[in-house]
Amino acid sequence: MASFSQQVKDEIIRLELSGRQHCIKAELAAIIHLAGSLHLVGREQVALSVATESAGIARRIVKLFKAAYTLEGEIQVEEVGKLGKLRRYIIKISPQPELNELLLELGLLSRENTLENDIKPQLVKERCCRAAFFRGAFLAAGSITDPQKKTYHLEMIVHNEDFSNGLIYLLNLLGIKAKIGQRKGKHLVYLKDSEAIAKFLSLINANTGVIKLEEVRVIKSLRGEVNRLVNCETANLEKTLSAAWEQVENIQKLRGSPAWFDLPENLKITAELRLEHPEASLKELGEYHQPPLSKSAVNHRLRKIRELAAKVSKRESGAGS
Ligand SMILES: [Zn+2]
Asked: Distance between CA 121 and CA 142 in Å, rounded?
């Protein structure tokens, strides 16, 4: 079965392109920033290539290019990985005037032809464009851990710090809690909070992803509830046992003193049953009696025994001084 990451990406890929040019350009800008590279051809001419491991994503990138620009380009397929099992799809756009316009408009090059590493503010003014931007960012550089795993995690790998700061800033504007980090010289923007991840997924319209995440969240919280109940019962059991051991000590103290012979017969029976069944609960202890006793009757007898044992202790310590 496809990983959760792939499922989310497949869902986004299938989304219709927005009819709005601003959203198409925002999605494309994020993809080129994160998965594209610029090459100098000759002295001044620039070529662009955008690489992805998924045929579906490659198709969507081509669609986005076509919806907003008229460019000449081609797709190359490379086999990668040890056994050539993985493929890489590279969309190559050779130098042409409209490419320069695109790079300028999408904020990849400045007017002076220098590389731009931050997010061009005009592209992400509207909420719809911010959503489109993150859709592109997730397709190009994102991954998400299966929510069934112990911790929730969604991340986007970014090549430079300015861009990761831009992503964090935008996520903040959208009310999505994100963090910044580094791994092997690359920058990460990541989300750890299940609520933030749900918000992010619904922002980029990965609705099936949101539903699955919510389901798992409910199951996990129920499981937490059950664990709490079990822990609570264990705590009660421990309380019962420590009380029982105290009773056993009291009874042994009484048995070693003359007071034992004065002990009323009914208390003696309960005391002996307690010694025989040190781990029984009060209810169980009651059931060992003939005829059976209620829990509160057993409790009453054990309280008497404790009082008598306390008197014995007092007498002993008095005699000792
Ligand atoms: Zn828009």
From this structure: 22
User: What is the 174 CA–ligand 1 centroid distance (Å)?
Assistant: 14
Q: Please, what sign has the CA dihedral across residues 189, 194, 196, 201? A: positive
Cα 22 to averaged position of ligand 1 atoms, centre (Å): 5
Span 185-235, pLDDT tens digits? 899 999 999 999 999 999 999 988 888 888 888 888 777 777 777 777 777
Distance (angstroms) between ligand 1 centre and the Cα of 207 equals 19
124 Cα: distance to centroid of ligand 1 (angstroms): 8
Residue range 250-303, pLDDT digits in tens: 898 888 888 888 889 999 999 999 988 887 888 899 999 999 999 999 999 999
Ligand 1 center to 125 CA (angstroms): 8
Contacts of 55 (CB under 8 A, 6+ apart): 87, 89
Instruction: Give all domains of the chain, ordered by start, each with its CATH number.
Output: 4-205 (3.10.28.10), 222-320 (no CATH)
